[in-house]
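Figure 2 data, in text form.
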Amino acid sequence: MLYFPRPLPDELLGSLLGRACRETGLTPTKLLFAITGERMYQSSVFLPTFLRRLASLTQSDVEYLLYGHSTFPYAVSFMPAKPAGQILGKILSAQASKNDYGSLMQTVVSGVPFRRKCDKCAEEELYKFGITYWHRSHHLPGVHYCLNHRRRLNETGIPIRRISGALFHAMPHEIDGATTHLDVSEDLLSEVAVHSVKALEYRGTHADTYFWLSRFRELAESKGYVKSSTFVATRLLAHDVLSAFGTRFLTEAGCNYTPDNPNAWPARLVRPCTKPEYSAPKHILLFTFLSTCGNAASRVQYRKPGPKSKCQS
């Protein structure tokens, strides 16, 4: 049987594969072949498709790896119970296709362009384990803050997609990094990280999607963005969200938009006639904004609507 290391706390599965390369001396291609029996040149950092084999090699089970070392719980955190359960069932029964995995991880992959690290985490890991590793909680869309050490993360030059060779098994202490310049307050970055990690750790009953639409609408109303059952200050809300986070932050998180578009995603998430969407980053960013800093109470011009009742900007 192939020797394989055990996953460390909060370690990404892609990081575990990198450590396996280092400890076995195998190249990434040879390691993936030894695990799967197939010629593979790439594997997802967030959720590899061969979980059953990894569970066997690490003497654990698929659910433990799925909920403890992948970004699966984050990706489904705002899905209703039925579709989330269907995806989970496919993965546990090994019936999920590569397209299923790819679609599920798309919002995470598109929101984390490069690997991130906390130098303080690396320092402590070297002392405790003799090795550093890549954390799940550092690789979520919009997360640029380490909650354990209350400090900004450093972004490296290692892309999340399509890495091979030495970069496949490079670890944080071996790679230089720097904080990304963002026009976002540290307090707001901290709140985004708090809510993102809560989504990552969530394992309970999934709320109906309309619960979140109602919750967002209540928060928007409390901050003055909603004035009646038919009036939503959509452009003002979109401009304020963009002002709070900045274009660069939203673009890196995969959540950028044109603020003058009345159908920008912040507006859609507070409208009662919106078709639900399940994007975790968008839900988390809007919740963070509305619960932390949004306020339109004195800036909304409202006139009572005419006979027609519909969502409007």
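Caption note: The chain has two domains: 13-174, 207-292.
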